[in-house]
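Form 7-S
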Amino acid sequence: MDERRPQRLFAPGFVISVRPVFKKSRLLFKASRRNCHCCCSQVEEFQKQLKSGRVQEAFVLFKQLPSHSLLDPGVGFQLLNVASTLLLKRQYSNQVQVAEIYDELKRRNCLKAFGAIDSVEKLPEPRKQVGLDKLVETAKIPLEALRPRSQSIFSYQLAGISLSLGLIFFGRILHIENIIRPIGICLLFAFLYDQIALQGAIFEELYKNLFPVYKQKVLKHEAGHFLVSYLLGCPVRGIVLSAWESLSLGIPGQAGTLFFDRKLESELMTGFLTDATIDRYSIVLMAGIAAEALEYGQAEGGQSDEAALLRVLTCLNPPWSKERVFNQARWAVLQAILILKKQKKAYDALVDALSRKKPLGDCIALIEAHYVP
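Output:
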């Protein structure tokens, strides 16, 4: 058969030309190879910029990657890892761009859980009026469990003062104050210096070593803030799990979850807060108390969260009434409890990741893997 002629198949009147199809396939194959090579070179350049800590340049390259690239989630989570680490170390200050990384991953359908609860209608309990009986009945948690008590923190603070004063007192009784008194005074001054200048970091570390359950409570408290903040669409910038870590990073305060609420920031500039923004902020603040109550049957941390919520609600113009503030707190903690119950697998995976000191992007990848729509 002459290969230069079109091959006739099935019937004399039905002709298929094979050579043009082969030619087109070769052209498409060459184009796909060029695109693959271009994508690989972009990924290599992205990794190079990322290793150098150039987050902005790496983010520009990331946005140029094809949307269908299978590397999207992986390189996006790597970008979040580096950006969060540098942000905590204050080597990178653009928290707005960290939020833009979330947005880009969301646009590429890599983050299905981020911002999944973006309206009141999607909340587990959208009705705003929540009495005490309604809270206990729906949450299935005793009311007392949701009232934070600072027994753990107060215990190690009181222990430090008692030990110092006790040494001074018994040294005088035993007539060995020349030996014991200087030790007691030094311990007392060390305790005061630690509380004032070091944010209680040293005594907190001692307490956590003596009572490991306290360390777990702090971790699970912050995991509650982390997960709920993420689901409500507030980009998490990082998490600090101890006063010592906070001190070493130069961050004021003790343990905490650092999130960025763009709507809250913009509305604070205008001096007007919408109900949606207040609701979102309230739920995120109450999530730590909710997590502790669910895991341990009693919240110990959370006084600062309650104080922050009270400060915001009473500073509104016009200020909220006492009953309205209490109702908002009850409603917010109920939402957080119901969200955490539904996303129990994602919460447990996040707690495990934080206990193993996984970076931000890895934590988010685990949330996405265990998220329940």
